[in-house]
Automatic annotation (TrEMBL):
Superkingdom in the source lineage: Bacteria
Subunit structure: Homotetramer.
Pathway involvement of the protein, from the record: Purine metabolism; ppGpp biosynthesis; ppGpp from GTP: step 1/2
Domain RelA/SpoT: 45-168
Family: Belongs to the RelA/SpoT family.
Alphabetical keyword list: ATP-binding, Kinase, Nucleotide-binding, Transferase
Protein name stated in the entry: Putative GTP pyrophosphokinase
Record GO biological process: guanosine tetraphosphate biosynthetic process
One annotated GO molecular function: kinase activity
Amino acid sequence: MENIEWNKFLIPYENAVEELKVKFKSIRSELLIVGAYSPIEFVVGRVKKVSSILEKAKLLDLELDEVENGIEDIAGIRIMCQFVEDIYTVMDYIYEREGKDMEIVAVKDYITNQKESGYRSYHVVVRYPIQTAFGHKKILAEIQIRTLAMNFWATIEHSLNYKYKKRIPDHVTKRLKKAADAAMVLDQEMSEIRYEIREAQKMFEIKSNIVSNV
Ligand code: 0O2
């Protein structure tokens, strides 16, 4: 495919990432406006690079015309939460939208079923409708939901994989597994005291608002 064709192919994916980011960021801002707790800390998103799409297509033995349905994360957003419990609240928001502005295609629970690497996260693949200048289209998008601790681990492991071209040395892999265990303990400990933490954050927010209104 020529560059221009790739650019055209990726338009609905770019739009989907932008729209999905806005939708989940809005949930956070709406909750904060009414003084409620937001299970969403922050949201990021990206469209897979053409080189990564081609790499994944090769890995999955896909022809170019199979990429659209065969690769589920060309459009991807990532939602970060403070606590593991928040991930399930975010999932409830997604279930509420099911059949309205998105359809759930698959749910991958790498929290209960931690990956061999140590990776933990909740993935939801959705079919998302997009209106472009060239017409209407439904595309696949992946929503990853994780805690800040899971994100810290995954980001570091991702960079190491990049550095070592997916062949991380054994001694580093062992350390990474230990770090993944530590991140899990961190999540569990934070969950235990989440009501205390939320109260403290609420008090801190009220104090900041008073100061900024002076
Ligand atoms: P990038 O750069 O993040 O886009 P499966 O066959 O279902 O196990 P599949 O089809 O690749 O795997 O989909 P899955 O499991 O939903 O994972 C896709 C994405 O999840 C990855 O995208 C990563 O973002 C993340 N991920 C999955 N496993 C790991 C892991 O062990 N470590 C880290 N750091 N991230 C992981 P890409 O395409 O790999 O890369």
